[in-house]
Amino acid sequence: MDEPSPEHGLTRLRSTLRLLYHGSSTMALRFQFSVLLVDLAIIAFFIATPLLRDRPSFIWIDIAVAVLLIADLVARALASTDPLRWLRQPTTIVDIFILITLLLPAWLANFGFLRILRLWTLSKSGVLWRPLKKFKLTQYREQGEAIVNIVTFLFLVSGFVLTFFGSPETGIEGYVDALYFTVTSVTTTGYGDVTLPGTAGRLTSIAVMIVGITLFVRLAQSIFRPNKVFFPCPQCGLQRHEPDAVHCKACGHVLNIPDPGN
């Protein structure tokens, strides 16, 4: 018998990974849920990084996370039907940059705060929201995305503030101080006990307040007045529609969006 060629083996591997990452079978859903749990653990590590950086075990955890991200990126590339197109996607580029900060921590230490963007890439790729579909809770996706955006923004800015403004003179001596400044700025509470010095500090504070307020307004809108509902059109597949839509705005197909009150 002829031995299987390497090309045939690679084709089978890609097919298997495609079914695991994008399929809807019981095995695929279990795999996707397991991957999601690992991703959330990695994000928790990224959030806790400023508190763990001085511990001896930090570098080994950092390396382990880098290995997991490499495995995930390679697997997703193989599972993609168009790897080059997948490679050009913004979420993939962000994930690759996060991986580089893990592989070169000594040279890119000042960019470590960008690792929290992994939460944003998971949200945009849809990985975070697959469990909602399984439990028929897709109507809450918009609220979930708004929460992810504000959480990502808070921790992203906190890491930036700690990296570039942390010092006894500014009152920002640790991660909690940076997070405290970010939250008080975003909510416009402005206690004044922690401030960023100089023109750069003022411009940073202004940007934090403007973007933060925008994200909070968006969060409030998604919770109290959702703009869209998730209901795939049977004709064209468009997923977002007005809550009272009768026809799909893309193709005109008649919709039967269920009443959330029923």
From TrEMBL:
<feature type="domain" description="Potassium channel">
    <location>
        <begin position="151"/>
        <end position="223"/>
    </location>
</feature>
<keyword id="KW-0812">Transmembrane</keyword>
<feature type="transmembrane region" description="Helical">
    <location>
        <begin position="31"/>
        <end position="52"/>
    </location>
</feature>
<feature type="transmembrane region" description="Helical">
    <location>
        <begin position="91"/>
        <end position="114"/>
    </location>
</feature>
<dbReference type="GO" id="GO:0001508">
    <property type="term" value="P:action potential"/>
</dbReference>
<feature type="transmembrane region" description="Helical">
    <location>
        <begin position="59"/>
        <end position="79"/>
    </location>
</feature>
<keyword id="KW-0813">Transport</keyword>
<dbReference type="Pfam" id="PF07885">
    <property type="entry name" value="Ion_trans_2"/>
</dbReference>
<dbReference type="GO" id="GO:0008076">
    <property type="term" value="C:voltage-gated potassium channel complex"/>
</dbReference>
<keyword id="KW-0407">Ion channel</keyword>
<keyword id="KW-0406">Ion transport</keyword>
<dbReference type="InterPro" id="IPR028325">
    <property type="entry name" value="VG_K_chnl"/>
</dbReference>
<dbReference type="InterPro" id="IPR003938">
    <property type="entry name" value="K_chnl_volt-dep_EAG/ELK/ERG"/>
</dbReference>
<dbReference type="GO" id="GO:0005249">
    <property type="term" value="F:voltage-gated potassium channel activity"/>
</dbReference>
<feature type="transmembrane region" description="Helical">
    <location>
        <begin position="200"/>
        <end position="220"/>
    </location>
</feature>
<dbReference type="InterPro" id="IPR013099">
    <property type="entry name" value="K_chnl_dom"/>
</dbReference>
<keyword id="KW-1133">Transmembrane helix</keyword>
<feature type="transmembrane region" description="Helical">
    <location>
        <begin position="146"/>
        <end position="165"/>
    </location>
</feature>
<keyword id="KW-0472">Membrane</keyword>
<protein>
    <submittedName>
        <fullName>Ion transporter</fullName>
    </submittedName>
</protein>
